Amino acid sequence: MSYDKRIDSFVKQEMTQSDAGAHAYDHVRRVLSIAMRMGRALGADLRILGAAALLHDVGRAKEKECGISHSILSGEMSIDILGEVGYSQDEIESVRSVIRTHRFSEGITPTSLEGEILSDADKLDALGAIGIVRAIAQATSSGVGVEGFLKHADEKLLKLHQMMYTDEGKKLAKARHSVLEDFVTELREEISNVES
To answer: Which residues make Cβ contacts (< 8 Å) with residue 54, sequence separation at least 6?
Structure first.
């Protein structure tokens, strides 16, 4: 195993105590799965990547409270648990760096292969069928409805396939982007056919 089960337990406990919406524990597990598959294919350090994938959103709930980026908070929240399970100081700093650079919306470029993979895996979970479900659930819970979903798709989701770092990420994004694009096209067509 490339990460300690105690890290997973810590993340699950932290994330089930808050309403994380589209960034809940199930999102973390999907990102972990995608990242580990990509990491094995690309020869990444799976110990660093696995821990970073699990911990990348653990600070998201606190971001709303204090206004500090969850990529910073998640890294800070990772220090103690990583130390407890035997990560060295250098490994902890590597995990924190991977977490810090996963969030493309801050314009920070990953500085390692593991950082590129986590960023790609996180974006991949916002594409395809699962990405559609997540975005619609978020649009529904925030009250913006179909128009809000379409706006989010135009402004962010439909651009994600162009932001992949790795060739593996680009390949996976192409298929997931097609699913999303087809859905958005069909949704727009159905909306336009509603009589006023």
So the answer is: 3, 7, 8, 11, 28, 32
Amino acid at 50: G
The CB density around residue 83, as the number of other CB atoms within 10 Å, is 13
pLDDT tens track for 25-82: 889 999 999 999 999 999 999 999 999 999 998 888 776 777 777 788 888 889 999 9
CA dist 98 and 38 (Å) reads 15
Q: 121 in a domain, yes or no? A: no
Helical segments of 25-69, H only: 25-42, 46-55, 60-66
CB atoms within 10 A of CB 35: 30
In a domain, 115, yes or no: no
Query: What CATH code is carried by the domain that includes residue 147?
Result: 1.20.58.1910
- The reported pTM is 0.90
Note down the domain range covering 163: 126-196
